[in-house]
From TrEMBL:
Family classification: Belongs to the glutaredoxin family.
InterPro entries: Glutaredoxin-like, Glutaredoxin-like_YDR286C, Thioredoxin-like_sf
The entry's keywords: Electron transport, Transport
Entry keyword annotation includes Chloroplast: no
UniProt cross-references to SUPFAM superfamilies, sorted A to Z: Thioredoxin-like
UniProt source species: Pan troglodytes (Chimpanzee)
Record-linked PANTHER family: GLUTAREDOXIN-LIKE PROTEIN C5ORF63 HOMOLOG (PTHR33558)
Name this polypeptide is given: Glutaredoxin-like protein
Pfam families (UniProt xref): Glrx-like (PF05768)
Length: 110
């Protein structure tokens, strides 16, 4: 169960399933960085390690594309894991790009 204050968080439904979106940044809420992953996937673990210094700037949401409820995401990203979305928008795939993430987070924080 997820509990959020205010209405800055929303559960979005698209043709590719449900996912959490937060695109407004305030002192109490953070943007959502979605990691599309599958098990086992060492690259996803490595990506999470590289992103640890940024953890205080976003909420990490992991989506395992191999689960039946995520089959649409699997069809879209099965060869591209890891894939990252920030606030529901594609950000990067195959490997983390910390400069790109930092740039987008700065835009949201301003």
């Amino acid at each position: 169960m997820l509990w959020f204050q205010g209405n800055s968080m929303q559960l979005a439904r698209s043709s590719l399933g449900l996912f959490l979106i937060n695109c407004s940044v305030s002192k109490t809420t953070l943007p959502v960085l979605t990691l599309f992953t599958k098990d086992p996937r060492p690259l996803c673990g490595e990506a999470k390690e590289v992103l640890k210094p940024y953890n205080n700037r976003f909420i990490l949401q992991e989506v395992n594309v191999t689960l039946p409820e995520n089959s649409a995401w699997y069809e879209r990203y099965k060869f591209d894991i890891p894939v990252f979305h920030l606030c529901g928008q594609f950000l990067m795939m195959h490997q983390e790009n910390t400069s790109k993430l930092d740039k987008q987070l700065l835009k949201l924080e301003q």
